[in-house]
Design a protein that fits this description.
The protein is mainly α and about 150 residues long. It has helices spanning about 10-20, 40-45, 75-85, 110-135, 140, and strands at about 70, 90-95.
Length: about 150
């Protein structure tokens, strides 16, 4: 769960689904729906993943909140999820992550610098997901690596 379901939570959901196909019932949502971010598609494609037909959605778009665990990726989402625990039996984990779109402007950032911020988020989430959900043992480690494409230049 994040603020707008545009970057962090859809990226995390795609990584979980890529690492553990059909192992978890998961849904990605924000406090409110935002706009789909094309940079997410680009950095996921680099690791052979995609969002498919994802469209950003808010919590109100979910049919129910029958989840065991809610991972929150922004302070606002964490506060919102903690309020939900008053009426829902949820475990909430807060994974602080930076919004790569925050504080970036086309005037001061190159496209590659922007993509690097998204790649850093993708790699951070991949490591957190692996550490939290991966079965122990070396036979699984190959499946849970995220490799960056070599950069030219």
């Amino acid at each position: 769960m994040c603020g707008r379901n545009s970057i962090r939570s859809p990226m995390a959901a795609a990584l979980v689904e890529g690492f553990f196909p059909k192992a978890f019932y998961l849904a990605s949502a924000g406090i409110l729906p935002g706009d789909r971010d094309p940079f997410v598609d680009i950095v996921l494609k680099e690791v052979a993943l995609d969002l498919g037909p994802h469209r950003p959605r808010g919590l109100d778009d979910l049919h129910d909140l029958n989840f065991d665990l809610v991972v929150t990726l922004s302070p606002e989402a964490h506060h919102y999820a903690m309020e939900l625990t008053r009426t829902e039996a949820l475990e909430v984990e807060y994974w602080p992550t930076m919004d790569p779109a925050a504080n970036l402007t086309e005037t001061f950032s190159t496209r590659e610098q922007i993509l690097d911020g998204y790649r850093d988020l993708r790699d951070l989430l991949a490591h957190r997901i692996r550490d939290r959900f991966a079965p122990e043992g070396p036979r699984h480690s190959r499946l849970l690596k995220v490799h960056r494409k070599p950069q030219m230049g």
